[in-house]
Request: fold
Amino acid sequence: MQSEIKRITTHILREFKQKGEKIACLTSYDFSMAKLVDSAGIEVILVGDSASNVMAGHETTLPITVDQMIYHAQGVVRGVKRALVVVDLPFGSYQGNSTEALRTAVRIMKESEAHAVKMEGGVEIEDCIRRVLSAGIPVMGHLGLTPQSIYKFGTYTVRAKEEQEAALLRSNARLLEDLGCFGVVLEKIPARLAREVSASLTIPTIGIGAGNGCDGQILVIHDMLGINKDFSPRFLRRYADLAEVMNTAFMNYISDVKAGDFPNEKESY
Reply:
């Protein structure tokens, strides 16, 4: 399947959903990592505002700027030949101002050459989503736990466990589809609700901490590779322990330098 598709598009993602083929997504923030992820066959690469955490060391996603998101996205796009590259609109660059939302989205698309943007929220940002879509820019939605609203929630706990919030999430998911979003991330909500919402939509859902009933899954690459050892939520599966591999390599390098064994004769001119 991978060799047959030269470039993943939003249309192809919808075809995946129709065929029942799961969509594999990961985050990336730089050229080298994106090149590896893309060559492995990942369908969607998200240049997430999680770069604020894993690349810059901030406690939340809120501090990262539009310029910083564009910088990360530029590197990712240069490393990708097949995957659809989606870029988060960062906090403060769209909420409550549809003109600013369009300006931000246009900048990201023009300066990074990415393929789509992602925006957190439902009815409260309806005008912003509508304005961005009106410019022909593909938009992915994001419901459930929305990290840009962490100070409003006050916790990273599972969202939509109560029926009132679950009903709002269902309504917002339908709204995003009706507006024209090509997909929606469902983060940290009950698996049963995510499965129900996924079945009710014609656009694909991408889950993170939302069970296996979604049409695809996404993880932060530093988490799933075991580079970031400080974050261990229930939904995270570590596919490698690169922190240990890298630490061993660093220690071996230090040892070889101290012993005068690196560089050796073959490694010298």
Remarks:
- The radius of gyration is 20 Å.
- The first strand starts at residue 23 and ends at 27.
- The chain has two domains: 2-238, 242-269.
- The longest helix spans residues 163-179.
